[in-house]
């Protein structure tokens, strides 16, 4: 079940880029840290916010002792989605299937569809006609192995295992239906455009991913944000950012506040959600919380 979820976290290289251009230009450099302490506003104990990368090759995976220690000091782990929720698979299946009477092929120009069909056949021996009821974003998820060029693992899975070892409850900031609904907010034309660009420029996509992994391992959130700005001349990415990052961040803040008041919580979300004017770090500070890096 978790493996299926991992491949449904789409557009991997983009989930590490967030924020707004103007904010990034004017803000002070961010300390190099993926782990942040949240305190103040009447919290009896601090909670923590950790930026993850949703898929990474095993040889690059690092979970520091500091992260393990701080998680041990909390009572619960909160991921973007609780992957162990009883209705997880039902919501997942419902969210990935096109409405009756709609087909995947209908979203594409014939030339683009043939290009994708040939690419999937050559790289994965997969006939796209077998996926004709699937939503376009499913193709993004299936290209993940082409992007990473390895059998990727996720920080979310590793943190869940650690939480189980520490006897902690795992919760989610949203349901899988809410998460995948964010993708539905993007016009199909934008999803198709991003997909075809990825396939047509796979070498560049791999290079961008490798650069982002390098910055992530250096805990350089500022560098990740700067790298993401290279895509900002493309309107497709503005649409993606608003739907998949900004709107979700704003929806998560009251949930994070509520859960942190109930019990000290270790929040773990994609690193791209942390930075920028509409990132979680800044939104929490605007709510009066003290948010500082943990070295």
TrEMBL record:
InterPro entries: TraB/PrgY/GumN_fam (IPR002816), YbaP-like (IPR047111). Pfam families: TraB_PrgY_gumN (PF01963). Transmembrane segments: none annotated. CDD domains: Tiki. PANTHER family: CYTOPLASMIC PROTEIN (PTHR40590:SF1), CYTOPLASMIC PROTEIN-RELATED (PTHR40590). This is TraB/GumN family protein.
């Amino acid at each position: 079940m978790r493996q299926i979820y991992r491949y449904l976290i789409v557009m991997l290289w983009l989930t590490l880029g967030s924020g707004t251009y103007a904010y990034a230009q004017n803000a002070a450099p961010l300390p190099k840290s993926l782990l942040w302490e949240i305190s103040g506003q009447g919290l009896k104990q601090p909670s923590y916010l950790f930026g993850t990368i949703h898929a990474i090759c095993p040889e690059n995976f690092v979970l520091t002792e500091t992260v393990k220690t701080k998680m041990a000091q909390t009572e619960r782990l909160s991921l973007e989605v609780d992957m162990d929720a009883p209705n997880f698979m039902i919501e997942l299946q419902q969210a990935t299937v096109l409405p009756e009477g709609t087909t995947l092929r209908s979203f594409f120009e014939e030339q683009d569809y043939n290009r994708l069909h040939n690419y999937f056949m050559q790289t994965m021996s997969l006939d796209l006609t077998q996926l004709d009821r699937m939503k376009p974003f499913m193709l993004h998820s299936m290209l993940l192995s082409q992007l990473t060029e390895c059998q990727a693992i996720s920080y979310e899975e590793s943190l869940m295992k650690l939480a189980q070892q520490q006897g902690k409850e795992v919760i989610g900031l949203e349901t899988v239906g809410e998460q995948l609904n964010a993708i539905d907010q993007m016009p199909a034309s934008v999803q198709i455009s991003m997909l075809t660009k990825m396939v047509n420029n796979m070498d560049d996509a791999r290079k961008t991913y490798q650069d982002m992994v390098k910055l992530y391992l250096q805990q350089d959130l500022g560098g990740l944000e700067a790298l993401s700005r290279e895509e900002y001349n493309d309107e497709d990415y503005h649409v993606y950012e608003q739907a998949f990052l900004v709107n979700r961040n704003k929806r998560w803040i009251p949930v994070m506040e509520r859960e942190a008041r109930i019990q000290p919580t270790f929040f773990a979300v994609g690193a791209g959600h942390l930075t920028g004017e509409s990132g979680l770090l800044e939104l929490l500070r605007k709510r009066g919380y003290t948010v500082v890096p943990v070295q």
